[in-house]
Design a protein that fits this description.
284 residues; alpha+beta; four-stranded mixed sheet; 6 helices; 15% strand; elongated
Amino acid sequence: MTQNKINKLELTWIGKHDDSQSIEPRLLLEIPEYGFGEVQTGTMPNGKPWPGNMLIHGDNLLALRALEQDFFGQVKCVYIDPPYNIGAAVEEYDDNIENSLWLNLMFARLHIIYRLLSDDGLLAVQIDDTNFARLYLVLSEIFGERNVKSICVKMSEATGVKMASVNKAGSIAKIKEFIILAKKDGIKNLNLERIPKDSWDNEYKTYISGISDEDLEAVKAILADDSRTAEDIEFVFEYEYRGYGGVGYECNRRMEVCPCQQDCSSCHAYRGCKGFGYSKEKFV
């Protein structure tokens, strides 16, 4: 990490600002025999003709540079899944290069993508934790720290046969990846699709509020005890129906009004109650 001339922290590495990263504009050549379907043409906001959807074959840095001439500031969304540089066996590209070389490759491409994006355009980059930190710093330098956010994506469970070697070595399983989001003017105005659950999640069905530290420890002890009794379990669940200071609640044990001022010692639900009533429904 170094500090640049305008007092912003940035990641530095060998060759970061080499002139070799400058690429002259290139031309895209159409190959008609590879095209199919009806081309949907039109006019882009910058007044230039929209050539239709394109599938570009070639080096992605040269392709991005070729797009700049017509698509500068016009792209609404970019998703990239770059090499993670983790030494994986991949025939199409080298996935085990020195970190500074990997950063040079990413730095040049991300700068062009920044120029291609419209003012409200969004960039999404998928990466794992090997180079997440480096990539996040690079994107923060290009887009601004406040304009970068990340999403953690669960990829697998930390169980099963494939996790046997990890568990045997006492290591930490890799069960997640990241999607880093970047926009020129902050991560906002996103249309998030909320997917409803098909069924209730039993892992998060109990909510306890207003419990003392002493009683909380008692509940934890019961939940951790494999020899717990049915009475113990009922005691834990009764915290769901706990009333609050002086508010009338219907006691689910005695089925009568409990204004939280009576002697509740005769009620089985008194354990841990400390004078509060119990109820599944608020008494009005």
